[in-house]
Structures
1.
Amino acid sequence: MESEGNLLGTGEARKREAILAKVFDLVPDTLTITRVADGRFVEVNGNWEALTGYPPEEAIGHTSMELQVWAVPEQRTELLAQLRRDGEVRSFDVTFLHKQGHLYYCKVSASLFESDGEKYMLLAVQDVTRQRAAEMEIRELNQELEDRVQRRTLKLEQANTELAHALETLQHAKDELVRTEKMAALGSLVAGVAHELNTPIGNGLTVASTLEHKISAFNQAMADGLKRSVLDQFVTDTRNASAILSRNLTRAGELVRSFKQVAVDQTSAQRRKFGLQEVVSEIVLTMGPTIQEGACTVDTSIASDLVLDSYPGPLGQVLSNLISNAMIHAYVPGQGGVIGIHARALERDEIELTVRDQGRGIEPANLKRIFEPFFTTRMGQGGSGLGLHIVHNIVTDVLGGRIDVQSVPGQGTTMTLRLPRTAPVALPR
Ligand SMILES: Nc1ncnc2c1ncn2[C@@H]1O[C@H](COP(=O)(O)OP(=O)(O)OP(=O)(O)O)[C@@H](O)[C@H]1O
Ligand SMILES: [Mg+2]
């Protein structure tokens, strides 16, 4: 270090001066020493020129203001104010102007010291231009990334909105379809009922008019003098006619009754809390004689703690339909078989109820149609084909569940009901 300012004095201090001079030049930062009184550089270290662009001789003896190294002079004012106030400054951010005219960014630490009654300022300058550029780049990258994420999010949101819209449209379309289907189903139901009723009522009418003729003939015969054989014949004919009449009227009555059940709804059914086990036992008990007649046995396994808040009446109707279907369709009349009724709890407050037989099973082609109104494979043998249609309506509309069928010809049929423990609230129709 040159002793222009005679900083470290002579004698003992010479050794220390030599050491300090080495340190002064070896540190990686740029170091400057300025006289506080006039602000002139007294000393700059070896890094100075590379940092500022000024050779040391152009700096020493001059002030930083003369060299115009401060790109933002207010930063100098602030630095000096802090230095005066605290005696030192650490990592103060400044922007300097290079001799070549470009800006560079530094962190400056400063402290004051005294030598020979003169005040000096030591400044350590660290060039952080590169670091700053890297930070800026990272910040820009981050910003870009954020922008990109935002753009994506926006796109996703748009897509979502579109999807929601599409879903709504679909829902509308589905509702519309259901409505149309219901209308169509109602139409075919009415046509079916008319068709079904046609036979018994037509039969009844034929028999009634035949009977009318017989009565006229009998009247005539009475006027002519009644013969025993004619009277006998008349009694037999009348008895036969009334048997046919009552059979057909009963059939018509049955059809009307099941037709009425098609429209079964919640409003007409009693809702209450009940143990599933009890309701099932009750149904099985009520059906006991019929079940025995069909030589069937019912094997139930239902957890005793399954409690439903639902409609026991309609549920019973479903069960008795499924049991009688198993007796009639699955097993050969008189030979019988086992009908299993099982129930277990599912997740989400649902239960599963199955009615299973190991009988004849259902042909795959028929499997799709069994819930349709009037689909029966026992046409003319007492089957109306309304049973499973009613079952389906009750399960979905009243009990708020769903019914599925699994069947393999020759291996039996399983009807699986998934029901909520708490049936939905009846909607006004
Ligand atoms: N457990 C079963 N095993 C075999 N076939 C069955 C079984 N249950 C129903 N089916 C078939 O499904 C058809 C429709 O059943 P559904 O209960 O609707 O009418 P049905 O029993 O024929 O007449 P209804 O119940 O009105 O007296 C039946 O005709 C039969 O072919
Ligand atoms: Mg049936």
2.
Amino acid sequence: MLTLFHATQSRSGRIVWLLEELRAPCAIEHVDIYRSLTGTGRSDPANLHPDGKVPTLMHDGALITESAAIALYLTDLFPEADLGAPVGSPERGAYLTWLAWTAGEMEPAYWSKIEGRTETDAAARKRYDQVNARILTALRHGPFLMGHRFTAVDVMVGGALAWGLEHAPRDDLLDAYVARVAARPANARAMAKDAPEASVAA
Ligand SMILES: N[C@@H](CCC(=O)N[C@@H](CS)C(=O)NCC(=O)O)C(=O)O
């Protein structure tokens, strides 16, 4: 059995979206989190994450945290949905690279932009520019980041871009991509489940 610990308007929304894309049966436990940008909320004792963060996934007693690890875990668990790349497939290397890159490069680069460090720190600016160049280069081949096929990478990157679009460079290709992935029916279904009052076991 799968259970996702989720907080409204947070990183775990991407996992709700991915679960919808996968059509994976999963109970959603809405929890509170501490929100550093507003200083609101609190770490919820009901959340099994060791640091009180989300997303947190439980699968038959196994605890999985970290958005990229959860995305990989789920796409491996539901290979028939074809949203990942199985071990041994030619795309596996690129798939793992993109997933790790979202956590290791994209997120820190965008946070440095949000916090203004890209204005004062040349290394932060370079990283931010490299991140956007990587996305735009992939989208020129598109329509998705791994080419013709929509994958969990598009949920991770597209979801992050949709959240932080005001911090992204103005580019028609990027805007069209975010609109394209955000318009997916699974995203609409996920958004309907985002708030606590909408909590249901899928
Ligand atoms: N690297 C983690 C970051 C998780 C994270 O920081 N989540 C935020 C919500 S967007 C959170 O739970 N914050 C609560 C806290 O920092 O206590 C991931 O990608 O899953």
3.
Amino acid sequence: MSKFNVNLHQVIFSLSDALDLVGVDQIYHGKRVAYIAAECGIALNWNKKRLDDLFLAAILHDCGVSSTAVHTKLTNFEGKNVGNHCDIGANLLQKRPLLAKLADYILYHHTSWAELQGLDLSEAVKFGANCIYMADRVDILMLNGLQADANILASKDSIRRQIKAKSGRWFQDELVDSFLQISASEAFWFSMEQVQNSGYAPTWVADHSAQAIDFQELKDIIQIFSHIVDAKHRYTAQYSEGVAKLSRYLGELFKLSEHSCDKLELTGLLHDLGMLRVPDNILARANKLSPSEYFIVQRHSFDSYDILKNIAGFEDIATWAAQHHERVDGSGYPYHYNEQKLSIEARIIAVAVVFMALSQKRAYRDKFSPQQLISELNQQAQAGKLDKSVVLMVENNFTACLKVAQLLDDII
Ligand SMILES: [Fe+2]
Ligand SMILES: [Fe+2]
Ligand SMILES: [Fe+2]
């Protein structure tokens, strides 16, 4: 397994853009919550280690949400029905050695202080989780306020009043005091419109330099995000994993370098990140999409690129992900590149994507049988859409491909 020279904070900060797409009209919710939480932590003189943990937990706090429907429920300030997104998110983190220590921040980010203070948790976790809860509610109040008046300052006083009213019951009183202190200035609210590079974000990203990270360790973090994509819709469960494994296997058959195969696998996991922006009802549609709905779906590969291009060391991954719906005759999207401009890796990903999509059921069609699958791939190769050499490689190793994509029991 090869090593990747990346800044892990930059990887997570950029990939969390994908989470922020889920709320569609609430872009950057996670980053605003992280901004607010960190400003409170700074006002309370928390040390750097504590601030770093708080910030990381806050940008990931809603990683258990992948559907817009769930996110909409969370926009009610007093709403008690938060579903199971705290458990799902905590579970995702729990399995990862680098992030397991933050699982409780996520698990308790909708738990009131009245309940939280009696639990057997460290002070850092109790205060951190409660700080994220308060920051989350501030952001929800702000977003609700923007619907009535587009000027962010218009709801400032009412937000401060509503948070103060929950002091001691929902939120620990020192946390509330710190919020009242930082939110008194207009600058605090204006910075909320620029959270990508305001407050603690630049420090958190820049303080962590690029270092050689094992492929396996990097993949472990990246799977948080691919699981979210795969959880968005029941028809796509295991989809990104399948594309990743199959692309890697094909890369190995083409005798690409180990590092290229590692990058292919990561591209498979990340290529559909942009799908998180597509509203659930469009993905679940059983009949034909209207032209405007199709435009929304069609921009997802570019949205994936938009997120991945910000990560130094991910240049190839961003490019191949951007091109996963390109076709060798130039009829794909979003660039309309043809054979000459598409690398072997991009052509492998494109075939793996079609392979996995056809082998799974969709709202509008049944899954293809293995015979239908290989004949469809061949047809698309003959028609000049998919790369012939890649499809031939699939055909010559068909049973192994089904096995690698973990479809053997499933599809037959
Ligand atoms: Fe939440
Ligand atoms: Fe949230
Ligand atoms: Fe796609």
4.
Amino acid sequence: MKVSVIGAGYVGLVTGACLADKGIEVICVDKDPEKVRKINDGIPPIYEEGLGAILKKRIGNTICAATDLQGSVLDSDITMVAVGTPFDGKEIDLAQVKDVSAQIGRALKGKNGYHAVIVKSTVVPGTTDEVVLPILEEASGKRAGRDFGVGMNPEFLTEGQAVADFMKPDRIVLGANDEKTLSLLERLYDAFDGTPILKTNSKTAEMIKYASNAMLATQISFANELAGLCSALGGMDVVDVMKGVHLSGYLRPAAKDGSRVQAPISSFLEAGCGFGGSCLPKDVKALISHGEKAGTKMGLLNAVIDVNRRQLLEVVRLLGKHFASMNGIRVTVLGLSFKPDTDDMRESPAIPVIRDLLSRGAVVKVFDPVAIHEARKVFASDPLIYCETLEYALADTDAAILVTRWEQFNRVPEMLAKASPDAVFVDGRRMLDKRSFSRYEGIGL
Ligand SMILES: NC(=O)c1ccc[n+]([C@@H]2O[C@H](COP(=O)([O-])OP(=O)(O)OC[C@H]3O[C@@H](n4cnc5c(N)ncnc54)[C@H](O)[C@@H]3O)[C@@H](O)[C@H]2O)c1
């Protein structure tokens, strides 16, 4: 079986590399020739633990990259669509999905034998059957379900641990409306023995992805709303409150031997400076808009977004308690990526925080272990001071704001005490012990 993956971004490249590592032949297709060149040289164009090692091992063997979409479709049995599906401010933007669907359809025109087209991008319920399928049929002149198959296979990987997630998935959701496509998909995932597989229709598969992300975003905003309440009421710390909540048997179920295991969902039930990234904000907003278009009042998810919008600037408000004006104040922002172990800055909470600080006239220094090159693109015209080392970032500063929970930041208390002992420290992730700072502010304290 040979697979072509269209879109060699976080999802497409990780999917392609992991399938190739399992022995499946893969062609990763991207319109960006620079990405394609890098992949063929064995260099991952994104930072993701373990990806480089797989590419080095498998390139030219079970995986290659190409810009030729139609040739790659003709040369494969399954095509997975993994292009971007941004939110355009009003609704999901399906331009990339539509564009590649038309190109795949044109390729299918000249293809002998059955071919399955599988949507891996996150798309609102109905897209695969009502948008992708008709485009494929029109461009190919063929019939779905008879001449080719159409399906949906959402991706649940988490950036920063994408390779590990893909290799050991918690579930595999396969959506299709015909048995032939479903069984082809099952064969594709044969090597992932022991993983629960849910077979359903494409629309349900699409909804499962949104339901999963909306649930995670809801936990975060719930914890953040409680953080705001703890601050307002005073005399308590949201960290202690959530610790008590995490001890619940629902979050620490008992194993057969009586021991208890903390459910990973607990990590979403923690106060912080809000969620970001390429998925949660856009997916929740796209689901709200899709639901409202269908006449459903999306009250809860609208509130999730509202809480998050306010939360993004809470760290600046906390800093403001120490300075009448921020004009000319030197502030170090620690962490730029939306979460640790990735260089992805899409919708990172660091962006509104930095922009707000700059608008108040602060002199902003930034440090991140891997996302500096991405930050230079985002803040191309802003006067940021980019720091190569944590030491330099913490020297001669009036304040430091921790935005991303990078492990390296465990050294901050000791380093800040030496480099800038009078600096105010604002912990946007409640990561460090408040007692290790002379001037401390934290979310939900
Ligand atoms: N990033 C994640 O953690 C994650 C997790 C699960 C699902 N998703 C979903 O997966 C999809 C892809 O997300 P991503 O983060 O990998 O996006 P990305 O922006 O990193 O990658 C998309 C790639 O598609 C390429 N592309 C766009 N149009 C193309 C075309 N016409 N031909 C060939 N290549 C084309 C782009 O050059 C880019 O490399 C989205 O729908 C996203 O919501 C993302």
